[in-house]
Amino acid sequence: MANSKDFAVKGLVETGDAVVETLGTATNGTIDLSTGNYFKVTSTEDMSFSFINPAETQTFQVELTGGRKPFELLAWNLIDESRDFASSLGSSYGFFLKPDGRVLYMTSLGADVIAQTSESAAEDAFYLGAFSTSIAAADKVSHTNPMGIAFKPDGTEFYVGISNSATLTQYTLTTAWDIRTATSGDTFTLSASTCRALQFKSDGSVFFQLDGNNTLRKYTMTTAWDITTASADGTFSYDSDIATYNPGAGITGAFVSTDGAIMVAYDSDPRGIRYNLSTAFDLSTATLDYYCEGSLHNSNDPFGLYFNDAGTEITFIYDSELWRFEVFGDCEVTYPSTVQWQGGSAPEVTKADQVSLLTFTTADGGQTYNGYVSSTNLKAGLSDV
What we know:
By secondary structure, the protein is an all-beta fold. It folds into two domains: 25-67 and 331-379; 76-330, YVTN repeat-like/Quinoprotein amine dehydrogenase (Methylamine Dehydrogenase, Chain H, 7 Propeller). Helix content is 3%, strand content 45%. It contains two helices and 32 strands. The protein has helices at residues 86-89, 239-245, and strands at residues 25-27, 30-32, 38-43, 47-48, 50-52, 58-66, 68-69, 76-81, 92-97, 103-108, 113-118, 140-142, 146-151, 157-162, 167-173, 182-189, 197-200, 206-210, 215-221, 230-237, 251-256, 262-267, 272-277, 286-291, 303-307, 313-318, 321-327, 329-330, 333-334, 339-341, 354-362, 369-379. Strand 31 (354-362) and strand 32 form a beta hairpin. The radius of gyration is 25 Å and the shape is elongated. The chain starts with 24 loop residues before the first strand and ends in a 6-residue tail after the last strand.
């Protein structure tokens, strides 16, 4: 949108002579008007604009790019899906993706195994359709009724919870990320049976278990990644919200954001649920943000729940197939109450990956501003004026 030419705002705001464009400083929505008259802002979360250090008379423009609000469940877009693993694994309810997106690990109740399968380096990372469904016996580890699975970030250990039991097992791998080199080690007795989902905090100090009774359970370890040092450290029951918003459903997937501030889940319909945690990773501080009215997908009883680190992609498993979706929300932006908008109201939300150009002018040193929408919701890269 910005260019090297002088510009003058015409029509809506008469400025007289041409104005030399100077790119100014904007930090987290705070626009320092002493630094320029053209500002580029990308909303990566809900934000509020403020204008500081205005001149007595000043016109300036804001190029606002809509960001993707992470860990939202209000907008879904299918990216890709895997082939059906039923022929080689039977009923599969848990999975884990290696961080580089090249190796997939799955747990199979039907075959009582944990399996790994790779994709070709020629394929795009995380492309689910590239994972082979022909899994050799050597790429499987026997384990009774496995469900939830999680790996240590360096790939040297993984953890497996099972169905209809409270046992969590820790495996050690002599070759990172290669389960063919795994040996079973310590076990830990969970506070409840069934592990529909298993997730570890990135530093190994905490893990979460989604049990078979709509409850997410937190455990804290005094020694990172050592489950023998774990102790129960709080629970969160979804029963009350299910009873209110979708009676008869059950929770089949849950995930806590990497910063511990957001918890998402989905029920058996599946309908998404989002919570905010006022204290990071503390389940007792969770409050409901929303319970989606519509189903996320046309399948019932999906299992597993994996978000990418950015919180903008989600993967789950259903009927022995994996599905990956782009998920995000539009970031809300609020403006100073001193802005008087043409037409009487602030502009609509700038949608994710789109651009709006806003023009402001003050003639009283920033006590009031007139605001105008020069263009709105243009595709990024096509917004030069």
